[in-house]
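Incident log, support desk, overnight shift.

02:14 A customer reports that sequence design results differ from what the structure should imply. Their input is reproduced verbatim below. On-call engineer (initials T.W.) acknowledged and began investigating.
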């Protein structure tokens, strides 16, 4: 089931999500000596990542991190590159971080890159995944109709029109035509393998997806709806993001 937490503002929402994430990471380190996490990108994660790197209970030297996705053919110098995003907002600000394994979307041999990153993640069972929900309900870049069956860690996916429009609308690209049509994405099944999932979802533009994912059936047409079946998924919403829910939150 999805445990829902609502906060009045985007900042309060992000701080609460980061606090829970820090608790999960610290617990994994205390129990096993290390933690493996997946970090999300996009406009929805700005405040959460800022809050997370400020938490002092995490021994970052014991953390190995991955990210969810990267555009195919995009160099890490591009403003929309998720590698650049995470290098600037996360990795460079954590000098003691144990390791961060980037997805090389511009690798010359994509098959070899998929084999490499899949092999690395296969060796690191995921303790915690930070994620968001796309305006089309996507989970990572698993757009509708999403593949719920693949057991690979990462795969090449096609980006549908509403997803590409979201990336343009958030200001990552000068024109819609500049938004890539394909990406490498962590698969739904591998995200679902995470012991804990924390979703940070602010803004009214996500409200339709929030309603469908929480109140609708589990369907690959709203991919994040599969999280209804996860045993430890926590959804952090601000008031605008929850505005279309038919059942009011306390």
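02:41 Re-run completed on a clean worker. Output:
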């Amino acid at each position: 089931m999805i445990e829902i937490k609502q906060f009045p503002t985007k900042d309060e929402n992000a701080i609460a999500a980061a606090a829970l994430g820090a608790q999960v990471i610290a617990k994994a380190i205390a129990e096993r000596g290390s933690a493996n996490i997946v970090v999300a990108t996009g406009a929805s994660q700005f405040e959460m990542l800022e809050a997370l790197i400020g938490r002092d209970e995490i021994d970052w030297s014991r953390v190995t991190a991955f990210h969810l996705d990267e555009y195919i053919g995009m160099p890490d110098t591009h403003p929309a590159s998720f590698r650049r995003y995470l290098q600037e907002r996360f990795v460079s600000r954590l000098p003691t971080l144990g390791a961060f394994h980037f997805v090389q979307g511009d690798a010359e041999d994509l098959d070899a890159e998929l084999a490499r990153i899949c092999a690395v993640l296969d060796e690191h069972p995921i303790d915690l995944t930070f994620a968001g929900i796309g305006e089309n309900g996507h989970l990572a870049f698993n757009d509708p109709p999403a593949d719920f069956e693949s057991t690979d860690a990462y795969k090449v996916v096609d980006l549908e029109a509403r997803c590409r429009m979201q990336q343009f609308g958030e200001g990552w690209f000068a024109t819609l035509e500049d938004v890539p049509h394909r990406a490498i994405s962590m698969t739904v099944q591998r995200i679902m393998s995470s012991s804990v999932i924390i979703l940070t979802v602010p803004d009214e533009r996500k409200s339709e997806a929030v309603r469908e994912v929480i109140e609708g059936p589990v369907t690959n047409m709203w991919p994040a709806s599969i999280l209804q079946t996860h045993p430890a998924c926590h959804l952090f919403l601000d008031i605008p993001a929850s505005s279309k829910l038919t059942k009011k939150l306390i």
